[in-house]
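A.,

Following up on our hallway conversation. Structure tokens first:
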């Protein structure tokens, strides 16, 4: 793991909450408007999770996960600050081109089938699934929001590097290995 990092990955607050609670270990990504012709790429294997609320709503989640919208990381902050509490390390990247695989992802993530299907079909059919090992800071911190962080993009470069010391894994090694095995069974 890097000792410091300034790269952040923008993701819905509810998904960040799910990662932070150990209810999810994958990120399902199509890409943002600003990703260009090439679409989404895994440019970084480690990153801070940058919680967003734009386009997010209970109607995009599996019903049993709507409570995630009330988690502190998923709620719009009162100030113009961004809370950094979670860090992720990408352990595997899979590109899904077969739509029959989509329903089997339900057990690994919190988005509902309609949302996953819409992402899959947007522009060119397909999705990226990133298996990530999530870590939490013992004491979350806030960074100032900047206009350059705005917009539909996956990656942002923070104005400074932040230490990754004091991180603890959300899932035990055994729990994470089970998630990894479950993803392998789905995508093979």
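Then the amino acids I'd put at each of the 188 positions:
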């Amino acid at each position: 793991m890097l000792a410091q990092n300034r790269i952040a990955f923008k993701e819905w607050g509810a998904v960040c909450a799910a990662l932070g609670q150990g209810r999810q270990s994958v990120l399902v990504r199509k890409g943002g408007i600003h990703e260009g012709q090439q679409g989404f790429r895994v440019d970084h294997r480690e990153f801070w999770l940058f919680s967003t609320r734009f386009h997010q709503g209970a109607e995009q989640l599996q019903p049993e996960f709507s409570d995630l919208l009330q988690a502190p990381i998923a709620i719009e902050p009162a100030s113009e600050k961004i809370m950094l509490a979670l860090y992720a390390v990408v352990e595997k990247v899979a590109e899904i081109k077969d739509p029959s695989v989509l329903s089997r992802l339900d057990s690994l993530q919190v988005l509902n089938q309609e949302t996953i299907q819409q992402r899959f079909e947007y522009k060119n059919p397909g999705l990226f699934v990133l298996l990530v090992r999530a870590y939490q800071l013992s004491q979350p911190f806030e960074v100032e929001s900047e206009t350059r962080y705005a917009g539909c993009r996956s990656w942002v470069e923070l104005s400074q590097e932040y230490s990754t010391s004091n991180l603890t894994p959300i899932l035990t090694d055994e729990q994470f290995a089970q998630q990894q095995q479950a993803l392998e069974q789905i995508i093979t």
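Strands lie at 4-12, 26-29, 46-52, 81-96, 127-144, 155-163, 167-169. Curious whether your intuition agrees with the design.

B.
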